[in-house]
Amino acid sequence: MPTVVLMDVSLSMTRPVSLDGSDEFQRKNLAVHGLNMLFEHMASNYRLEFTSLMAFSSLWELLVPFTRDYNALQEALGNLEDYDKTCVEAALNGVSNVVQQEWAVTDGSLGIGKGSLRHSLQTQKHRGDDKKFPLPFPFPTKLFIMSVANAEELQMTDAMDNLEELLRLSGGDGQIFTMEGPLCMKSVQAMFGRLIDHAYSPFHAVLHCGNLSSDVQVFPRPEPIVMDEEVEPMPRSVNIDLEIVGFIEIADISSPPVISRHLVLPINVNKEVDEVGTGTTDELEEEPSASQMAGKSPNFCVLLHGSLKVEGMVALVQLGPEWYGMLYSQADSKKKSNLMMSLFEPGPEPLPWLGKITHLGPISEAAENPYGEDDSKSPFPLQPSAKRSYAQNVTVWIKASGLQTDVQKILRNARKLPDKTQTFYKELNRLRKAALAFGFWELLKGVADLLERECTLLPDSAHPDAAFQLSHAAQQLKLASTGDSQYAAFDHNIAPMHTDFSS
Amino acid sequence: MKMFSVAHKTVFVVDHCPYMAESSRQQVECDVLTKSRAQGVIPLAPVSKSLWTCAVECSMEYCRILYDVYPLHKLINYIVSDSEFHILNSWRQEDQSTHELMSALAAVGPPNPREDPECCSILHGLVAAVESLSKITELQHERRTSLMDTAERVANRGRIICLTNAKSDTHVRMLEDCIQETILEQNKLAAGSDRLMAIQQCDLILVHIHPQGEDTLVSDRPKKEISPLLTSEIHCVRAGRHLSTKLNILVQQNFDLASTTITNIPMKEEQHANTSANYDVELLHHRDAHLEFFKSGDLHMAGTSTRENGLKETITLKWCTPRTNSIELHYCTGAYRISPTDVNSRPSSCLTNFLLNGNLSSHDPSGKLPVERAKAQLERHTRYWPMIISQTTIFNMQAVVPLANLIVKETLSEEDVLTCQKTVYNLVDMERKNDPLPISTVGSRGKGPKRDEQYRIMWNELETLVKTHAGATDRHQRVLDCIIACRSKPPEEEERKKRGRKREDREDRTEKNGSKDTDDKSWQESERLKGLVDKEEQESEVIKDSPDSPEPLNKKPRLCTEEVQPPERAKGPVSLLTMWSNRITVANSRKHQEFVGRVSSVNNKFELYQQLKDENGMDVHENGKASR
């Protein structure tokens, strides 16, 4: 999820922080320090993510458009100027514009550097209906408010209430962070540390395939999901052990619906540990050599990615109890492709055409190769246990045309007796069943009359069997129309009359 | 939609009282005479459906759409009411099909117009419906059992759709009151039963059906709360077309469905095979399928149209003949089950037949879950799996394939064992013929390892592979035994070529020299040979944990004296091939002079570079390397 950082550059942010010690800081300096920390963290753990920086006061300005260049973001932080007063509404409108411009359809997440919001939030309370408040955004968002003030300070006024209202308006997904203890570098670090833990911690997992495994980062982080707030209110999270259960042809899994897609990046665990906490720019420059090192040791991800690509298959991976996903090679461009993981909807049977995932087994154990010896067939898609209405010849007479078509079909075949004896009786029985189920006995009588009339209209050249079959069918329909259980049983079928001609 | 929302249970209560036998007064002309036949033929009088027929066919259509879109967990209980109630099916999944219901309806037949109307009432059915709603379904039972201490999370809600001909608003109110009362009574009963659940919410939809052209004494009323347990809505509808439209709208509302019309589907004309015309087909599906349109605000682009009734909208999509090849993965955010609105119209069936042409099979697992067997198979296949092609010999050899394919099996047949043994013999044969092996020479100076060294590496690797499976069954073990018995011990092989040596001379050196020192040494040796120094750790991991590995080499294999010819000492019978090989070896050994080292060996060992050891103490290993 891309991030928009919204930095308050109003005068209130220049208020000095009263410190016992020597150095005098402004709140702005604290905010910048915290954001630098966030950017450094993202540079080392979220380098694929786009971030943009906006400054706002009564106006807003896009300082850095969405970028992966975290140096540029940090540089911009160093060149902030001070402006007049805080106006959150304008800033949020700005965010909405920027996001929709840059990301026609996407999700964005917000951080807000905040000083004194009090005034502007109060004025927003009196906004006219004509001027729509920018929240909630027309795209999914998480709103994180980083307040360079402690909770007590905010609670002395109604600032906290206003911020909470803001969060509620945004859809409720997000959090307000305040500083704990005195306003100093240490506590601003602690606050941003909490944000990072909450929203920017990388998702590390171990990908297993039998005895092979690889440490990976799954990016972006798979978010926990709630399937049914009533029966299962606890959100389901992806396991940190991802177990490959098998491989399947792309044609068989056939572009399945997924709830999210993620890059699967092999990581060097030791390297990661080294980086934590010391994400300096110097280290970033050294990274290529580190990744070169990583490139030399064989990695299961590389093997898996290459194999999936070459074989045109995907790997089914278990994400948790009754939760599966797939690993596959996704082409980025002609030359480059990535190992990706898509998450299926949780449940034992996310893709009906494969059946229950737990019922999928190794081909080698099948009595007969389900793909045929020459790979000419496939066991998928599975036949559903009950046929859908469109896969069976159902009878619907809601529209008059449906009924007319069915009657005409019978008459058409009646005129071609005895050649069409089988089709004639098939259509006749279909009509009979539906008429009995719908309690439409009048129709049975009517069709019987029609058949009798057809009998009288038979040309002299007609086969003698035709007359016998027509009167037999008419008689049977009439019997059924009495509701007599002997003749009106639903599962009973009218059989062709056995004549000397029909043999 | 929650798993146990009101949509989980729907009870249809259909009036089967004598007045339902009345005609809907909508006539259907089913005798369509063609002009050529029209002369002199009296057409059949049009038929007309009874109120009952209209109610039944529309309710069946509701069920058809529901079952198409939700094959599971959205259940229907069908009740017919006259002088008593008739329950036509149960909540059980196997009873959930239109075929089941039609069969039961056929047994009920149309209402008997001569029955005493005083004895008949829709009330019998409504009371039965409430009782039915309190009965636990398979899914509710399963979830309650699995949730154990949080079983109360399984809710019991349901909906009653009553198709009747009511007398008046007062009559309707009486029915509502009666349902409310029955719910309260039934909830008391449920408290003391395992198979019953208290009803937490019941939505009543009462559809008053009246014949065409007759004024209704009942008024429409939107959904209203009768009590915290019961809501009720009243719809007054003329039988026939209007009723079917009404139920179509209801099924959409009740189950979160939406409509999409596929337009411009090219189709061959029925009458003129050479021409084709474009048709439209309307489909119903879960409304989430339209979510992305709403999100992107592109609804107008997709095109919406309001139907004549003004209540239902459909999104129109233009048909594109699919050109995708099935070996590409496309990003897909949703797949939804569909049901054609007009299922047996020709355009609908052409579309669905086009989409359905798949070959299908079904399977039923028995015993251990197949997916667990799949995982077990993956585990077996990855016990020994070199990650780099240049680090493996055996997986580059066609000759090893039969064994490599078989040894990973959970069980082996006698025939499999035989195939594996043949593979081993074949390798022995290759070795004797001095066939080259596909050992990578990348990184090594010169031509890479000598042939006998290549074979030693190959045998080590093969043994490592088979050893990881040897514990599985006796037959796996026999394959390993065969390898141990047949594999060459390179030094001896070398020796055998150089000079004769009697088999009896062999020292009993079967005990493995498992000392770490020698192992490592052999490691470095092979590493050096392959020029894969940076892989040292891994590589040594692979081979050194093989306790039955041959005696590790000293660095100059040709000069060291090692045990000779182990095959006969190995477990199991000696193969013919081994016996023959030994004979040849013995014969050859007579043809040359013995080496000094071997002659003066102790226990078939002769220590090399003894002077270096004296100088540098114990670090033979390092010196050995340096001396090269």
UniProtKB/TrEMBL annotation, chain A:
Gene3D superfamilies: von Willebrand factor, type A domain. Residues 3-103 form the VWFA domain. Residues 395-502 form the Integrator complex subunit 14 C-terminal domain. GO terms for cellular component: integrator complex. Keywords: Nucleus. Its main location: nucleus. It is found in: Nucleus. Residues 200-347 form the Integrator complex subunit 14 beta-barrel domain. InterPro entries: INTS14 (IPR039841), IntS14_b-barrel (IPR045814), IntS14_C (IPR046471), VWF_A (IPR002035), vWFA_dom_sf (IPR036465). SUPFAM superfamilies: vWA-like. One of its GO terms (biological process) is snRNA 3'-end processing. It comes from the Eukaryota. The keyword Nucleus applies. Pfam families: IntS14_b-barrel, IntS14_C, VWA_2. Belongs to the Integrator subunit 14 family. PANTHER family: INTEGRATOR COMPLEX SUBUNIT 14, PTHR13532. Component of the Integrator complex, composed of core subunits INTS1, INTS2, INTS3, INTS4, INTS5, INTS6, INTS7, INTS8, INTS9/RC74, INTS10, INTS11/CPSF3L, INTS12, INTS13, INTS14 and INTS15. The core complex associates with protein phosphatase 2A subunits PPP2CA and PPP2R1A, to form the Integrator-PP2A (INTAC) complex. INTS14 is part of the tail subcomplex, composed of INTS10, INTS13, INTS14 and INTS15. This is Integrator complex subunit 14. The gene is ints14.
From TrEMBL, chain B:
Residues 490-547 have a biased composition (Basic and acidic residues). Pfam families: Mat89Bb (PF10221). One of its GO terms (cellular component) is cytoplasm. InterPro entries: Cell_cycle_regulator_Mat89Bb. Residues 490-572 are annotated as: Disordered. It comes from the Eukaryota. Keywords: Cell cycle, Cell division, Cytoplasm, Mitosis, Nucleus. GO terms for biological process: cell division; centrosome localization; regulation of mitotic cell cycle. It is found in: Cytoplasm; Nucleus. Belongs to the Integrator subunit 13 family. This is Integrator complex subunit 13.
